[in-house]
Write a structure and sequence with these properties.
The chain starts with 8 loop residues before the first strand and ends with a strand. Strands 1-2-3-4 form a 4-stranded antiparallel β-sheet, with no helix packed on it. The protein is 12% helix and 41% strand. With 330 residues, the protein is mainly beta.
């Protein structure tokens, strides 16, 4: 069970500003790992400047949960270079030497229910994306949401999920919830505590079994469970790729979406373009996919275990580097 009193600082996003300057977003406890993501910990934004004596500088965004950052170079209209930080609930910080401005992505403002996880600059345009197929584009009129009707991820009925039959797996997934305020406390005696946890485990299994037999509810959940968009790539508004859950790959030409034949059911997490113009996509199950909308996409076979998730990739000179929890792959 995760400790709600922990005070761990975790870096969750970052970008390079220069060869020796980095802008990093961190979540700071207590117990930030217990949230998914609401109510969430505050965000601490760091600049690391290797050439200075102090090296680390930071400011806090107390009511933010920063998910993504990007560096925007100096623009042709003379606008100075800056860094942007995207909050899960749609707040955007624009930080430059001249000062800081903040805005909301969604027209709902602080009533927005949340779910934005990535910001990208593609060409001269800004985009962000997130759960339930959300994609926003900043036009001259401001932020507008693109229409998306991506296929819902395929799901298993809960009662058929073997992980839910295992008490230890269930406890690892939900045990931290019993430590939150407002939840009936667990007994202090170890034996009584274990018995109560097992009673709650059996009760949750019974509830899930009933939900699995409720076809109306199952349809409602299916309608709500749209594919999440984890990353965006391309050259701009008329050449935009979206990737995400259940192997989602989609291309927007400025008017309509094209979804190629599915070639993987893995969660695609990061998209980049190589010097040749090909997309290079990586994701869970050590998945690598390359291609483009006009020629099709192909999975790349390799010898790395499918237990290794690939989180990001980029090209440097003639090589492509892939980041994972195990380190870098070349």
């Amino acid at each position: 069970m995760r400790d709600p009193d922990s005070n761990v600082l975790e870096f969750v996003a970052g970008c390079a500003v220069d060869a020796d300057i980095y802008y990093l977003a961190a979540r700071i406890g207590p117990g930030h790992e217990c949230y998914d993501p609401d109510p969430g910990p505050p965000s601490r934004m760091f600049f690391y400047q290797h050439q200075t004596d102090e090296k680390w500088f930071y400011h806090d965004l107390p009511d933010w949960q920063v998910e993504s950052t990007i560096f925007v170079p100096e623009q042709q209209d003379g606008r100075a270079r800056r860094v942007l930080a995207l909050d899960y609930y749609g707040q955007l910080e624009d930080l430059a030497r001249a000062g800081t401005t903040c805005e909301y992505i969604s027209h709902e403002g602080d009533d927005f229910s949340g779910g934005l996880t990535r910001i990208r600059q593609l060409g001269e345009d800004l985009f962000c994306c997130g759960v339930h197929g959300m994609i926003y584009h900043r036009s001259e009129a401001g932020w507008e949401q693109l229409p998306t009707h991506f296929p819902a991820p395929e799901h298993q009925i809960c009662e058929d999920d073997p992980d839910l039959d295992d008490f230890d797996n269930w406890l690892d997934c939900v045990g931290h919830l019993f430590e939150l305020d407002g939840v009936p406390p667990l007994p202090a005696d170890p034996a009584e505590r274990d018995a109560e946890l097992r009673r709650r485990f059996e009760a949750s299994r019974a509830d899930l079994s009933r939900i699995g037999k409720d076809h109306a509810l199952d349809q409602l959940l299916a309608d709500f469970d749209l594919a999440s968009v984890n990353d965006l790539c391309g050259t701009g508004f008329t050449d935009l790729y979206a990737i995400g859950s259940d192997g989602l790959i989609a291309h927007w030409n400025g008017a309509t979406w094209t979804i190629p034949e599915k070639i993987t059911f893995a969660e695609l997490l990061h998209a980049s373009k190589t010097d040749s113009g090909e997309l290079f996509l990586v994701g869970t199950e050590a998945t690598i996919v390359t291609g483009q909308i006009n020629t099709g996409f192909t999975p790349i076979p390799h010898q790395i275990s499918p237990d290794v998730p690939f989180y990001c990739a980029c090209q440097y000179e003639q090589s492509i580097y892939i980041g994972s929890e195990n380190g870098l792959y070349l």
